[in-house]
Amino acid sequence: MAVLIQVRNAHKRFGDQVLLDGADVSLVDDVKVGFIGRNGAGKSTFLRALLGDEELEQGEVIHHPSLRIGYLRQHDPFQPGESALDFLMRESGQPDWRCGEVAGQFELKGDYLNGPVKALSGGWQTRVKLAALLLNDPNLLMLDEPTNFLDLRTQILLEHFLRTFNKAALIVSHDRAFLKATCSQTLELSRGKLTMYPGKIDRFLEFREERREHDRRVNATVIAKQKQLQRFIEKNRANASTASQARSKAKQLERLQTSEVEVDEPTVHIRAPRVTPRQGTVMRTEELAIGYPGHTVAENISLEIEHGQRAAIVGDNGQGKTTLLRTLVDSLEPINGSIKWGHATELGTYAQHVYSSLDDRRTVLEHLEYESNADTTRQDCLAMAGALLFRDSHINKKIKVLSGGERARLCMAGLLLGTANVLVLDEPGNHLDVETVEALADALVDYQGTVIFTSHDRHFMQRVATNVIEVRDGTVKNYFGNYESYLQSVESEVDEGERERDRIAGKAAPPPPTKAASAEDYRASQRQSRKAEKEIKNLEKKIAQLDDEKKSVNEKLLTETDPDEAVRLHDKLTEISEELEQAEERWMELSDF
């Protein structure tokens, strides 16, 4: 297992902000790593340092001689008038047949391959860029938010590609479902340090929360013991008969101070608008047609949405999801038909056409105070601003100097402080990190109003959506199933498309085994199956035993007052948790078998 990139003692800061503080990590040649961290933590800076585009103040980045990096660029690399095929040939130096073959893996064919690449949507352009990466034969892919603006079908294609890509990858993403499906390890950048966890993101987040909870308990125990020792010292140091004891306790106090636990990063908490729950139909469309002058996107739309529903608008890019949302909020005139909103409906809208038109003269704080509910305090505004990464001097920034991502977050903050009882949200998770997306999902689940939204983040969709509306082939209709069933149906369509592509390409299925081979394979399979069943039973007993041990140590840790013993229990708990995780992973492997 070769180390492709090794980072040693990396230091980097911007002004007062420390991005890398003695960070170390190694990336090896056959592991896909999900890279996470709070917005502004320095993930993109770190990627640029790996590429050699950013200098470190101290430390080194060592590349293996055979390293070939494929980096998914966010900027537009296309020349005016060139087709996707032209771009692939120019970028890779490969012949047209080879470029077409690789492009086919991403369903790039016909007009998508031979027409102007700049006329394609962002999702299709990302497919073109991915095909270009593959043509250059990298052994390390570096992808920075690859799922932004990708529809579900393209995300699934990208997942399938990454699962069959038998080399290394480093993937920055806020999409937990995507990272879980593609990455076997998780790398976190926090407080300037890099932490590599040998497991998927869900396990890492659970592990991190357990670790923080243990740290809080140990810290509370240490602080309580410090206070107890301090009281004893103050009471007894002036007394000749107890002065030596007081000196001994003072030495204990010094040792305790060295074992204090670092304070956690601020926890993101977001609240939704406080509204009164209502019953009945909130919105109805009749014979609605949507689109633009000279171009109808969808027609004969008859929908009803009830108060309290959280309706997910789904469909491939270019089918008309955003067009539908803009028509519903009266940002776009309907071509035909009508939209009727219920009595006393107050709409709150989050979409690019909204956050790109904020009042440039206001500061961040002034905007939030202007948009917020009448009974909202300045502290509420500051708390919401902090949750969406406007802290300290940033709250006094003028809107005119904010980036596109900052404007989007500010618009979201103002919306959540308002009084809207219907929220219409177009890609609300863009520009947010994993923790903030999760906090937003929590807020929307608790929200007593109605939500109509689109998102490319499957974990977010599964958390929030109560019903699904599909935009497809010029129609808009209720999907009779939940988001999970919709996801499965798209997976099946993608799988069928890939099988058909392989059939056309002449990739025949492997021939059936001979009878002799089949009999021998069957006997071997039976032996393996019996062995696996036996190991599964033993693992189940071990998992139950470790679970009991973990609970017992946890209970002791909650009540332990001796700091040294608390530290020992914490180490014991970490050891049990690691052993339990290994046993559970092995059980899952055998269960799949």
UniProtKB/TrEMBL annotation:
Q: Where is the composition biased (Basic and acidic residues)?
A: 518-534
Spans traversing the lipid bilayer: none
* Keywords, in A-Z order: ATP-binding, Nucleotide-binding, Repeat
Q: Domain named ABC transporter: which ranges?
A: 5-223, 283-498
PROSITE patterns, alphabetically?
ABC_TRANSPORTER_1, ABC_TRANSPORTER_2
Q: Which residues form the signal peptide?
A: none
The UniProt GO MF terms for this protein read: ATP binding; ATP hydrolysis activity; DNA binding
Q: Which Pfam families match?
A: ABC_tran, ABC_tran_CTD, ABC_tran_Xtn
For the region Disordered, give the residue spans: 236-258, 491-534
Sequence ranges of Polar residues compositional bias:
238-247
User: Which SMART domains does the record cross-reference, listed alphabetically?
Assistant: AAA (SM00382)
The record's Gene3D superfamilies line, in alphabetical order, gives: P-loop containing nucleotide triphosphate hydrolases, Valyl-tRNA synthetase, C-terminal domain
Q: What's this protein's name?
A: Putative ABC transporter ATP-binding protein YheS
Its source organism is: Stieleria neptunia
Gene this protein is translated from: yheS
